[in-house]
Fold this protein.
Amino acid sequence: MSKIEIDENGYYGNFGGAYIPEMLYPNVEELKSKYLEIMYEDSFQKEFQYLLKDYVGRPSPLYLAERLSEQIGATTYLKREDLNHTGAHKINNAIGQVLLAQRLGKKRIIAETGAGQHGVATATVCALKGLECIVYMGAIDIERQAPNVARMKMLGAKVVPAKSGSQTLKDATNEAIRDWINNPADTHYVIGSVVGPHPYPDMVARFQSVISEEIRKQLKEKTNSELPNYLVACVGGGSNAAGTFYHYLNEESVKLVAIEAAGHGVNSGMSAATTQLGTLGVLHGSKSIVMQTEDGQVVEPHSISAGLDYPGIGPLHAHLFESKRGIFLSATDDEALEAAFNLTRLEGIIPALESSHALAGLKKLDLKKEDVVVVCLSGRGDKDMDTYMKAMG
Ligand SMILES: *Cc1c(COP(=O)(O)O)cnc(C)c1O
């Protein structure tokens, strides 16, 4: 199998690159020419590691879920990203990008958000650093996600409604891009997943790679080997999965399992299972697999979980899929709900709906008793309590 790595133009195999309007060249070029140098400076690493430890609460535990293991029939560990400050893995990337923006001399931070998790993480770090923060959010999402909108406002961010199109994530992204074009000198755009033009997918994967760096150490302590048989993570854009897989991409004995959201079912017309339904296309600045019609119109995705409700997938994952290095499965809304209640009753942990898709995927693997499985529990379920209560009837 050929090595999984990104080339100097930002491609993983056939996917990636930077497909952007000319007006964005200066911003993206600046980032591309400086991100690696800045990220690996001693002073940057010192501050980043310090905040991950004392502010986020890392390392997040690698928890042996004994009752779940018994049910699944294999030793199953949960990587507890749900215990991070602000409740998910997104804070790892938000801290990294805001520190980087400061070193680029940027005074203004913009972000787009769908359900609000990435917006909250970005607003949190901006409050910590005293930076101006503007979050673009679809007008419909602002109504649906009131608690996260309130959190962002309390943190001092300005939440700007995107009122065009379907008034959701895609439209918020367009507004954020427009803002960035108009404010190239003083503004950094914090993208929340391993999507967007190069260097974003690589930069976000590197910030999230702390997840697999810790898994290797923690697994070695617990099992005497750094290598599990399976790593399992849910995929929206793919950042928690990229972080979970990163330091294992070229360990061929470790199976990398990505679980997409099937919504009402892959062929129901109400799904977000991009690798099953998508074709080669360009979305938000990179070439990848995209859910689209024959003439290239993006198809509206559906998932019960807002964080997986995305019609594309990061270029790393498109390459893992095409090269067969990754195993891509999907879980429906109902399967995710069932997995959420199952984990809650077995382990006393209420998972985010996104993470519940990863848990639902466990049943679809042909596991043996001696297998060691690590599931990325990307976030906690507090934000999903309305949905869970409706499901309880
Ligand atoms: C946003 C989110 C996701 C999906 O995003 P990825 O970039 O695919 O990780 C998954 N889980 C949680 C808890 C989230 O908030």
User: Anything to note?
Assistant: DSSP finds 16 helices and 14 strands in the chain.
